Amino acid sequence: MSLRPRLDKPWQPLTAETAQRLPGQLGVYQVADAEGTVLFIGQAGARSPFGLRSELQREHRERGDGCQFRVEVNQQYRTRWFELLMVHSADHGSLPRDNAKNPPPLGRLSPS
Amino acid sequence: MDFEPSAEQQMLIDQVRRFVREEIIPLEARLDPDASELDPADHARLVEKTKAMGLFGIDIPKEYGGPDIDIVTRVLLAIEMAQHRAGLYVPCYGTFGGAGLAQIFEANDDQKERYLYPTLRGEKKAFFGLTEPSGGSDPARAIQTKAERKDNGWVLNGAKIFISNADRAQYGIVFARTDASKGRAGITCFIIDSDTPGFHVRRVVHTLRSSHYATELEFKDCWVSDHQVLGEVNKGFAVANDRLTRQRIPYAAGCIGVAIAAHEMAIEWAKMRTTFGEKLANRQAVQWMLVDNEIDIRTARHFTLEAAEKARRGLPFKIEASIAKLIASEGGGRVVDRSMQIHGGMGMTKDLPLERWYREMRIRRVGEGPSEVQRMVIAREILGSNLR
Fold first, then answer.
1. 8 Å CB contact of A46 and B206
2. Are B140 and B108 in contact (CB under 8 A)?
3. Which of A90, B20, B127, B278 has its CA at 20 to 30 Å from residue B372's CA atom?
4. Which among B76, B56, B13 has a CA at the least distance from the CA of B308?
């Protein structure tokens, strides 16, 4: 019954080309540095013009080459985003660096 | 019974209607379609407005500082407060304040100091821990979380599921079995602080209500003192049951509010939209859908106000509350569904609130006791009365 709470797909390099190939769907994503340290957990909500594609294209424009990303298409992008942030906090003791700058209101989770 | 609002009630209705249309809906236009929270600055500003209106803490009893508004009027206002995108589950984003969980008013003086008053001041939030993986509609039998006597207190072991706000609350009201041999007479209600060792929020549970998640809880050798027992040992079921009955009336009111909003949108669209050279409003198929909407809304409104009126008079209202909840949740779902049909493709998009209402309204037929349980409650009351 329990779904996987962590996003553990393989990382892909964040480039203009990989972002361009992404679906225009709703979902969540993570951006990491070259070593795989998660820098940011984001969501592509219904106000994103082209969903995950728009969000990752924006991430690439702002961060340049050298980062990695992974995405999950998910209609429940909002609750999934909260879940990923809480699980990350539980696993690492803090939010990803770029989420910590403007943290959303979060609960406490003790995932198994 | 005459359910036409009095002049004073109408004034309050107009006031809340203006608030929703002028304050809430414009802010909502900038939020994510699935948002459940306002920006904190906007929330604080609007709370000041509801306080100035004299309507903050509307559900708080007068003796605890509430504005002393009877339940019929509160139902009329709840119908208004629900008429925006997030309104079914987060009417006006909580800017009218909350009374906390009804059970906490049953607390003793010490517990009131530690939990009730901080809750009414907005300093603490609570969760309601009843449903378990083994079931929710039949708590008398489904509750398997155990509380066993130990060291002048109780040790809880077990799990709860579909619990809202447990990850953000400072405490919760949790039902556990204290006597396995006694069925519903063996359940006790506990107040559990969220930082109690052995209490864990294990995972997020995603549902149709994608604006908000539920959680799954685990109690693992979670010890609490006797001071955390709410009410009497083995009498927790009555506390749960009373709350569930009372909750059905405002629950129905929220469904009616959303149904009205969807219906009004459908009427406007039908008057405006032309297909095959004719306004939708001129087509009998659409007219009949709108008529059925109107009938569903008026029926739900009548029975919900009847339940509220009985509660206001201090009369038994168990059957009426179940009928209201049943009719409003089922009828409201039909109204939203028809309104989407009238809107065609636009009705399926996140541009409009209809798709969110459609998903959230579906949950209402299950939440707070599914339709089938409401029918069981009504049947029991009817047959019981006949047998007497």
1. no
2. no
3. B127
4. B76
DSSP helix/strand/coil, B9: helix
Per residue in B240-256, is it b (16+ CB within 10 Å) or e — as a string?
A: beebbbbbbbbbbbbbb
Residues of A whose CB is below 8 A from B166: 107
Give residue limits of the domains in chain B. Answer: 7-100, 126-230, 238-387
What value of ipTM does the predicted structure carry?
0.85
Report pTM.
0.92
pLDDT of residue B23: 98
CA A85 to chain centre: 9
Out of A75, A76, A110, whose CB is closest to B200?
A110
Residues of chain B with pLDDT under 50: 387-388
Contact present, B16 and B91 (Cβ < 8 Å): no
Q: Would you call B368 a catalytic residue per the annotation?
A: yes
CA dihedral B343, B344, B349, B354 (to 10 degrees): 40
| Whether B184 contacts B140, CB under 8 Å | yes
Classify domain B7-100 at the CATH class level.
mainly alpha
Q: Count how many Cα atoms sit within 13 Å of the Cα of residue A32 in the half-sphere of its side chain.
A: 18
Q: Token digits for A76? A: 């429940």
- Measure the CA–CA gap between B79 and B16, rounded to whole angstroms: 10
pLDDT per residue over B136-152, tens digit each? 777 778 899 999 999 98
A54 pLDDT more than 80: yes
Interatomic CA distance for residues B48 and B322, integer angstroms: 35
Domain over A13-92 is classified CATH 3.40.1440: yes
Pairing relationship of beta strands B214-225 and B171-177 according to DSSP bridges: unpaired
CATH topology classification for B238-387: Butyryl-CoA Dehydrogenase, subunit A; domain 3 (1.20.140)
Minimal Cα–Cα distance from A71 to chain B, Å? Answer: 18
Could you give the CA distance from residue A60 to residue B94 in angstroms, rounded to a whole number? 38
Q: CB-based burial of residue B325 (10 Å sphere; 0-12 exposed, 13-18 middle, 19+ buried)?
A: buried
Q: Regarding the domain with residue range B126-230, which homologous superfamily does it belong to in the CATH classification?
A: Butyryl-CoA Dehydrogenase, subunit A, domain 2 (2.40.110.10)
Angle between helices B71-81 and B284-313 (to 10 degrees): 150
Let me know if A9 is exposed, middle or buried by CB neighbors in 10 A (0-12, 13-18, 19+). Answer: exposed
Q: Which residues of B fall within a CB distance of 8 Å from A47?
A: 32-33
